[in-house]
Amino acid sequence: MRASDRAYATLRSDIINWRLTPGTVLGEVELSERLSVSRTPIREALAKLTAEGLSEPQSGRGVVVSEISLDHLEELFELRAALECKAAELAAQRRDPVIFLALYEKLSNAGELITAQDPDRADYYQLAGELDSAVDAAVGNHYLNLALKNLRVHLVRVRRLSKDNPVRLRDAAREHAAIALAIAHGNPAVASAATTVHLDNSLRHLLSTAS
Amino acid sequence: MRASDRAYATLRSDIINWRLTPGTVLGEVELSERLSVSRTPIREALAKLTAEGLSEPQSGRGVVVSEISLDHLEELFELRAALECKAAELAAQRRDPVIFLALYEKLSNAGELITAQDPDRADYYQLAGELDSAVDAAVGNHYLNLALKNLRVHLVRVRRLSKDNPVRLRDAAREHAAIALAIAHGNPAVASAATTVHLDNSLRHLLSTAS
DNA sequence: CATCTCAACTATGTATACATAGGGCTTGTT
DNA sequence: AACAAGCCCTATGTATACATAGTTGAGATG
C-alpha cells in the first residue's frame, strides 16, 4: 500500500472520529513526523481530504480541519433529502424485490440490535449501511452514488454532535423498514415520501438533542 | 499564482474543451515538460482532477482522462434532476423577487443572443450561467452548491457530444425564463416542475442529435 | 512459429534540499 | 504606553534525486 494512502486513511479516520477536532491545523511538517513519512505523501493526503471537504485551505496558508456545526446540519439535510429521495425513487423502479423484502425483515427486527452491550451501535449502523448499499446497487447510477458517498462522510461526522438514544434508534429502524418495504413494492412515490419523513424525524432529533 | 494552480487550470480547460480526449494518458513527465514545471505541481493538479472526476486512475498506474459517453448522459441527468429541482424549490422560498424578475426579462429576450455571429453561443451560455449563479446565491446552501458545481463540470463536457441548434436554444431560453418566473413568484412546486420539464427536453434533445 | 521468461527501461512513489512568502515578535519612536 | 515598522523564523511551494514496480520487448526453447 502507498504511504500517501495510509496517511489519507489515518487522517480521514481521525477527522471522522473527532480525534482531530474542527479547526485543528494540519501542518505538513508535524504530520510527516507523526506518521513517519515525508511531506510528499502528506501533501497528497491533505489534497484529497480538502477535495472531500473534510479540511479547508486556511487563508492561503496551510489547511485546517473543516468546521461542522448545527448551522451546517440543516444545509446538509437539504442536500441529503434531494439525493436520498431521488435514490429511493429510482431504487423502487429498478430493485430486486427479494433483496429489499429481506432487508425489510431484518430492519423490522432491528430493535433487538440496540442493546446496552453495544454502546457504539455498531450492529445497528451496519444494518443501516446495508440498506444504503442495497439502494446504491439498485439505482446503479455512478454519479448519484458518488454524490451520496461524498455526503455520507459529513453525515458520519455530524452524528457525534448529538447523543443517540435507544428510543429514537428504534423509531429510525422502523422508518428504514418502511423505506425498504416501499422499494420492495416498487412504489417510487411512497419510497420517496417515507425517506422524506425519516429525514425530517432524524433532523428534528439531532437538533433537539444536540450538545 | 501557484504553479500547481496554473497546471490544474490548464489541464481542466483542456479536458473540458476536448483538447484532451477521453482515454488520453496523463503522464507526469510528459506534462511537466509540456507545461514547464516540475512533477510536484503536476501531481497536485492530477490529484485535483481525479477528485473532480475529470480523470481516473488507470489500473494502479498513471491516470487517464475519464470517459464521457451517452451511457453517462442519462445517469448524469438523474443526478441533475435531483439537485436542480431541489435548488429551484429552495430558491423559490428564499429569493429576492427583483433579481429573478430581472432575469426573467433578460431570458425572455434571449432569442436575440443566438445569432450566426456567435457560433459558440458564449452570450447565451453566460446568461444561463447567470441564472445558475442567482439560484445558487438564493439557495445559500454550501453543500448543495458544491454538489451542483461538481456536476456542472461534467455537463459542460457533455455539451460537445451534440450539436446545439438555434431552435432548441431558443426553446431552452423560454424554459429558463419559466423557471426564473416561478422562482420570482415564490412558487416552489412550479419552479421544480418547470425544471423537470426543462431537463427532460434537454436530455431528449441531446440524445436525439448526439453524434 | 508461438509462447514463456528474463531483463532492461520507463514512469510513478518517496525523500529531501532549496526558494520564498507570510506571520510573529521585538524594538524604536511618538 | 501604544502603535508601527522591520527583521527573523517557520511553514509551504517547487525542484530534483533516488527507489521501486510494472510493462514491454527480445531472445530462447518447446
TrEMBL record, chains A, B:
Residues 1-68 form the HTH gntR-type domain. The keyword Nucleus does not apply. Keywords: DNA-binding, Transcription, Transcription regulation. Transmembrane segments: none annotated. GO terms for molecular function: DNA binding; DNA-binding transcription factor activity. Pfam families: FCD, GntR. InterPro entries: GntR_C, TF_FadR/GntR_C, Tscrpt_reg_HTH_GntR, WH-like_DNA-bd_sf, WH_DNA-bd_sf. The keyword Transcription applies. This is GntR family transcriptional regulator. It comes from Arthrobacter psychrolactophilus. The lineage of its organism: Bacteria, Bacillati, Actinomycetota, Actinomycetes, Micrococcales.
